[in-house]
Amino acid sequence: RQELAASAAGRRLAESERLSRAGAALATGTPALERVALSILGECRAILPFAWFQLELEVPDLGRRSFAAAEGGELAEGEPVPPAQPPALPGFHRREPWLRLERELAVEGVRLATLRLWCDPRRVEERSLPLLDGLVPAMAASVRGAFLDREARVDRLTGAATRRSFELRLAESFAGCREGGRALALVVCDLDHFKRINDGWGHPVGDLALRAVGRVLVEPARGREMCARWGGEEFVLLLEDTPGEVALEIAERLRRRVESTEVEVEGERVPLSMSFGVAAFPELAVRSGDELLAVADAALYAAKRLGRNLALLDLGRGQLRTGSGRTIALDESLAPPEAPVFFA
Asked: Is the same domain home to 181 and 325?
């Protein structure tokens, strides 16, 4: 039993670590950026041989993002690592330095990206270079399109996804999880005493607080999960293939990180805390993503009523669980008006 418990705990910890990075790939628009980098990689491979590829993007409100690939390798976010010289070739006794091709991708005089290719000069045909140059305007237009797509999907202040993007994803994810018998968890979170921050320090400081919280919720994220700004100081996380207990662990970890996040104004620390409500399918017999969201929102309401700076999981049957493992009965004082009740 101890071995089984340890194994289960290890699986839960690994799952928690994987899913605790909730949202950035989708929330920061990484899939759209990766798609355009993959498209440009394919275009370059079709016209000339190269050993290493890099597309360095200048993403508005996000900064520099680099995607790289070796010859025949898969595209990945990161920096290229070419060797000092091209490899030896049969029949060639002399190895020459890399032919490093660099092209700026710009639209209307604004640089959007830089394309770099590390080529073995012994393998490059002269006619390939004009072909590459002829593709540069189309590549720049593709990058611009990816940036515009990201702007429509990402909240500029916090870096989280927009509410509209989340609504579309929630409907799609719930349908897929229900059909495949997979788990889906939602975490609704709200920055505590945000009005007090705005009134006491001013709206610019309130924006600083939102940006700081956005970094906690969004930046560590990778994968298919999503973090969105629902409105004002409220955010929501979508976690596919995640049972409720793991989602609660994620929420508790994020709560602690927000609590330890420092925002200082003229040497004075602005205290931050956040409340979380968690609900999971199919543990709760909800019929839609909107119903699951309503249950998570009700758990958030209860966390607020219990003093804030708290993460609560709806267990069904009128029971809530805190991040520390304590079970709380959901009574009328903790339930929002006309709160729906779904039994496990």
From this structure: yes
Q: Which two tokens stand for residue 161?
A: 């996804």
Element (H, E) at 188: strand 184-191
Compute the C-alpha angle 139/36/61, nearest 5°: 100
Tokens linked to 277: 């409500």
Considering only residues 22 and 53, tell me which one the structure prediction assigns the higher pLDDT.
Answer: 53
H/E stretch holding 119: strand 110-119
Amino acid symbol at 296 = A
Residue 264 C-beta-side C-alpha neighbours within 13 Å: 4
Alpha-carbon radius of gyration of the chain: 24
- Phi, psi dihedral angles at 278 (to 5 degrees): -125, 140
Query: Does 198 share its domain with 148?
Result: no
Q: How far is CA 78 from the centre of its chain?
A: 16
256-296 pLDDT, tens per residue? 999 999 888 888 899 999 999 999 999 999 999 999 999 99
A 10 A CB-CB count for 1 gives 5
Please, which contacts does 214-218 make with residues 24 or more away whose CB atoms are closer than 8 Å? 214/155, 214/157, 214/158, 214/159, 214/160, 215/159, 215/261, 216/254, 216/257, 216/258, 216/261, 217/22, 217/23, 217/158, 217/160, 217/189, 217/254, 218/23, 218/24, 218/27, 218/28, 218/158, 218/159, 218/160
d(CA 18, CA 73): 25
Please tell me what DSSP assigns to residue 95: P
Question: Does residue 202 fall inside a structural domain?
Answer: yes
- The CATH number of the domain where 178 resides is what? 3.30.70.270
Tell whether 77 is covered by a domain: yes
Pairing of the two strands 327-329 and 319-322: antiparallel
> What's the predicted TM-score (pTM) here?
0.66
Q: In which band, very low, low, confident or very high, does the pLDDT at 57 lie, cut at 50, 70 and 90?
A: very high
Of 185, 289, 182, nearest to 227 by C-alpha is: 185
The tokens describing 78, both together, are: 């990161």
Name the residue range of residue 56's domain: 29-153
- Cα–Cα distance list, 180 to 8, 168, 224, 226, 341 (Å): 23, 19, 16, 19, 25
